[in-house]
Write a structure and sequence with these properties.
The chain has one helix and seven strands. By secondary structure, it is α+β, with helices and mostly antiparallel strands. The strands form two sheets. Strands 4-3-2-1-7 form a five-stranded antiparallel sheet, with helices on one face. A two-stranded parallel ribbon has the order 5-6. The protein is globular and about 35 Å long. The model has no long low-confidence stretch (mean pLDDT 86).
Length: 84
């Protein structure tokens, strides 16, 4: 869905738009983890995660190439939006 060089803000905007369209975003993260983001708030994402997490704070999340010291790094080139 996005260029691998996307920044954090672009990635978050795509995720927000996908959720507003009533779709879920499947994505891969550093370490081979995958998540399905099903919602968001101003400060966090609501998700189903292969590591068992149910939410993730946005302030510790980044994208490959724009992650700084983020604990969670998304790979935007892997984003896949799903509809049920």
């Amino acid at each position: 869905m996005m260029s691998p060089l996307a920044d954090r803000g672009d990635a978050f905007n795509v995720i927000h738009q996908t959720v507003l369209e009533r779709r879920a975003m499947l994505l891969l993260m550093r370490g081979g983890r995958y998540s399905v983001i099903k919602g968001y708030s101003p400060s966090s994402f609501s998700l189903f995660d292969s590591g068992g997490s149910w939410w993730m704070m946005k302030n510790v999340t980044g994208v490959c190439g724009d992650s700084g010291d983020a604990r969670h790094v998304f790979y935007p080139a892997t984003f896949l939006a799903m509809s049920a």
